[in-house]
């Protein structure tokens, strides 16, 4: 190799070394993530960078960092377009830590361009594409680094993939260390404060459904949705009669521990709330380390109630291994849970309604179901908040 061929690699190596050092500095000072993300986007060849550290159970550990100043764009993404991102649906069942995902890996450019995410969201800021590296993925936590490409930069290519592969492991380690430090701080708080800090509704119940403790999320649920659940005579009573009977039966079993409920618990569909299905998961508290939670309250079970979401990769693993669903079929099931109707799924995925219905027909055949509501119940059964991949 000629000496002239080697020279361009030297400043790039120095740039990479400096960038890696800045990434690890975020462990000490997380406030520097925005500046570091700006440097990452320059190195990768992108216009904007987003780092999401999401913990579905312990939401106080969740974080969202961006490389730019545009609060309206961020708010629009979080409130509307996060769920409409077709890459999010298409990657269910395919998420692997450290894997770089380009849109070209998952769908045709024409499909992507037809999606609402591109037409309504990316285009508004002169963006055309996203490249993503999944840094961490469990049943309840996911850390993702995304970079957006401008119209001038075009669709992400193999050079973008290579550069993300170079820095991805370092971002993952820095994020993991930061999450561990935050976990130690959380563990130092009292149990009551910890439960109150969690975003979902949590009830600690005895064998007769008497409420021994409820966190702030549970109190909000009771106030906002009295038709879904209420406390009557000190006992938690689901509004749905079938859910009420099932809860009573499960609590009796909970006293016998994990042998009766299993370590992942039992899921109960409570009610539809504001367009979303409410699912409750009952976990026994009479076994192992979970006795430390039950002790002060004489509880036999913890009930977690939250809006049902497609829990990747736990749900995807079940649908793939037990029913043989393809990645595209898994994406359609995720769409049913999160959007409901065929037209909405088609718009998000850039498909025709006829194509979505064709996938549904195959899904019904493989799972032995005949209605979309049955598929929601199927996913609810895999939605334990303690499940780990």
TrEMBL record:
Entry superkingdom:
Bacteria
Q: Name one Pfam family in it.
A: GerE
Give the Gene Ontology MF terms in alphabetical order: DNA binding
InterPro entries assigned? Sig_transdc_resp-reg_C-effctor, Tscrpt_reg_LuxR_C, WH-like_DNA-bd_sf
Q: Where is the HTH luxR-type domain?
A: 322-379
Q: Give me any GO biological process, just one.
A: regulation of DNA-templated transcription
Q: Which residues cross the membrane?
A: none
Could you tell me what this protein is called? HTH luxR-type domain-containing protein
Q: What's the source species' lineage? A: Bacteria, Pseudomonadati, Pseudomonadota, Alphaproteobacteria, Acetobacterales
């Amino acid at each position: 190799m000629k000496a002239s061929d080697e020279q361009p690699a030297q400043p790039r190596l120095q740039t990479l070394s400096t960038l890696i050092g800045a990434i690890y500095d975020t462990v000490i000072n997380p406030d520097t993530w925005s500046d570091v993300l700006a440097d990452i986007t320059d190195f990768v060849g992108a216009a904007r960078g987003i780092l999401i550290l999401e913990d579905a159970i312990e939401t106080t550990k969740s974080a969202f960092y961006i490389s730019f100043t545009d609060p309206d764009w961020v708010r629009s993404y979080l409130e509307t377009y996060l769920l409409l991102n077709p890459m999010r649906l298409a990657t269910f069942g395919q998420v692997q830590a450290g894997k770089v995902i380009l849109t070209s890996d998952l769908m045709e450019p024409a499909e992507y361009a037809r999606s609402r995410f591109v037409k309504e969201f990316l285009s508004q800021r002169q963006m055309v594409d996203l490249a993503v590296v999944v840094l961490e993925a469990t049943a309840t936590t996911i850390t993702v680094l995304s970079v957006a490409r401008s119209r001038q930069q075009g669709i992400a290519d193999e050079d973008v993939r290579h550069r993300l592969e170079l820095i991805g492991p370092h971002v993952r380690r820095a994020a993991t260390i930061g999450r561990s430090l935050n976990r130690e701080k959380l563990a130092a708080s009292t149990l009551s404060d910890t439960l109150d800090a969690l975003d979902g509704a949590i009830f600690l119940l005895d064998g007769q459904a008497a409420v021994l403790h409820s966190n702030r999320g549970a109190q909000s649920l009771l106030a906002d949705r009295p038709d879904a659940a209420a406390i009557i005579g000190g006992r938690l009573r689901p509004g749905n009669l079938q859910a009420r009977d099932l809860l009573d039966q499960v609590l009796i079993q909970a006293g016998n521990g994990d042998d009766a409920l299993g370590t992942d618990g039992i899921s109960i569909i409570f009610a539809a709330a504001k367009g979303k299905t409410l699912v409750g998961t009952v976990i026994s508290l009479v076994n192992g380390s979970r006795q430390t939670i039950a002790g002060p309250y004489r509880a036999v079970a913890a009930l977690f109630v939250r809006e049902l979401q497609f829990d990747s990769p736990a749900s995807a693993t079940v649908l793939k291994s037990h029913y043989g669903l393809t990645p595209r079929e898994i994406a359609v099931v995720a769409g049913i849970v999160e959007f409901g109707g065929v037209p909405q799924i088609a718009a998000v995925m850039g498909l025709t309604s006829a194509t979505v219905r064709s996938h549904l027909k195959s899904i019904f055949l493989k799972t032995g179901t005949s209605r979309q509501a049955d598929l929601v119940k199927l996913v609810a059964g895999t939605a334990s908040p303690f499940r780990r991949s």
